[in-house]
Specification:
By secondary structure, the chain is an alpha/beta fold. It has 2 helices and 8 strands, in the order βαββββαβββ.
């Protein structure tokens, strides 16, 4: 089970605006913002089992890694679980309105399984992000 993921971005303010909008329909919000030699953003969702009441599982850092590599994480696929098809639709609309590019409008993907309802958007760094609901209508 994954606990959290960190992605590098070229523009932390752009990432903040985009992900604040795109993830809001999935009950995510900005949970941390700080500077520790680099700018860091954390996004999380309500979780009563966490000490803060929120589980921050997606993090963004600006600038290249001190260990080398590209300055931004690109070409990744990130999928967030939605509790309803309406949340998938809202995620897609919010992400597109925030500057994302369409990579698959909301709809059933029966090749995955009969109830797989997802939407895909390319984020500002070129990552394929998705919201998916696995429940029947």
């Amino acid at each position: 089970m994954l606990d959290h993921m960190t992605f590098r971005v070229t523009d932390i303010q752009r990432a903040k605006a985009f992900y604040s909008a795109a993830l809001a329909p999935l009950d995510y919000s900005l949970s941390y913002e700080g500077f520790h030699g680099v700018n860091i953003l954390g996004f999380g969702y309500p979780d009563a089992t966490e000490p803060t009441g929120q589980k921050s599982d997606v993090w963004f850092i600006d600038g290249p890694s001190p260990h080398g590599g590209p300055p931004a994480t690109t070409g990744c696929h990130l999928a967030w679980r939605a509790s309803s098809r309406a949340q998938v639709d809202a995620f897609y609309q919010a992400a597109i309105a925030a500057g994302g590019r369409d990579n698959g409008a909301p709809g059933l993907r029966p090749d995955y399984h009969p109830d797989y309802y997802g939407a895909f958007v390319i984020d500002p760094e070129g990552n394929n992000i998705e919201a998916v609901c696995h429940l029947p209508a």
